[in-house]
Design goal:
- 39% of the residues lie in helices and 18% in strands.
- It is an alpha/beta fold.
- Strands 7-6-5-4-3-2-1-8 form an eight-stranded parallel beta sheet.
- The longest helix has 17 residues.
- The radius of gyration is 16 Å and the shape is globular.
- It starts with a strand and ends with a helix.
């Protein structure tokens, strides 16, 4: 079985470390301490220029907090997505919910249209949906390529039961990508017990500068565990 690792990177140092560790795909964001926000367009362009071997999935999230967005926020996200396309993003990572905890279909349709032909990942907003099985069908109907989810638990390992059920329900119509607390020890277990083929990790360590950045040794360890 061929498995794919996606590494979350929120700084140029993390991007370089992910590449050094052997990653081939990253989710690029900023402000990982806030669970990730939209990176700058300059950052996207430099990553594409200096790390052409990396497939670049770009998070579009205009602020911290919940995933219920007003019209101005959605317009900002649409504009950001269009600019991400121009800057060279290979895929968009986004999500929007209603106040009740359902997929905001109207909002997502706007964002999908802005993405145009770029594949879209529905991010971990999925983990606070009140009806995950129904939400899965809605995300599939929207045309999203994948869902990043911890199975509505604090970690993907804890979420294995729901991840397994959702992956069976999806039946190849969309990619379920477990993420949350993923490391070299549990990554094979998560994939084997859920039937998923892609997995998402930050693979980070506390650096001397006090920041948490991607650790190339952790990236390499996960890849070796998956091989």
């Amino acid at each position: 079985m061929q498995y794919t690792l996606e590494v979350c990177a929120a700084s140029m140092q993390s991007v370089a470390a992910a590449a050094e560790g052997g990653a081939r795909r990253i989710e690029l964001c900023s402000a990982l301490s806030l669970d990730g926000l939209t990176p700058s367009m300059g950052m996207i362009r430099i990553v594409k220029e200096r790390f052409p071997q990396l497939t670049l999935h770009v998070l579009v999230r205009p602020r911290e907090g919940n995933f219920v967005y007003n019209d101005v926020e959605l317009a900002t996200m649409q504009s950001d997505i269009i600019e991400c396309r121009k800057a060279g993003a290979d895929s968009i990572v986004v999500g929007a919910l209603t106040p009740e905890g359902d997929i905001d279909l109207a909002a997502m349709q706007r964002l999908m249209e802005a993405a145009d032909t770029l594949p879209v990942t529905f991010h971990r907003a999925f983990d606070v949906c009140r009806h995950p099985e129904e939400a899965l069908e809605q995300v599939i109907a929207l045309g999203c390529r994948r869902i990043l989810t911890s199975g509505q638990q604090p970690t993907a390992e804890q979420g294995i039961p729901l991840l397994h059920r959702l992956n069976q329900q999806a039946d190849g119509r969309i990619i379920l990508m477990p993420g949350g607390g993923v490391n070299a020890t549990n990554a094979p277990l998560i994939l084997q017990q859920t039937g998923c083929t892609e997995i998402h990790a930050s693979a980070s360590s506390l650096q001397p500068n006090g920041l948490k950045d991607t650790d190339p040794q952790k990236v390499q360890a996960i890849l070796e565990a998956l091989s």
